[in-house]
Amino acid sequence: MNVKKIVGVLAIALLLWFVFTQPDSAAGSMQSIGTTLRNGADSVIRFFTQLV
Q: Which structural domain, as residue segments, surrounds residue 20?
């Protein structure tokens, strides 16, 4: 079996375990990741806006 596939399945299993055992923490982590991605996108947009 492919190692990449095994790692992917294990990552999904770990994510599901985290969501089922600690839903509040999982939701907080997702919000934090979303905020970080949004801030990064805003920074990239601001950078390109300043170039023009």
A: 3-51
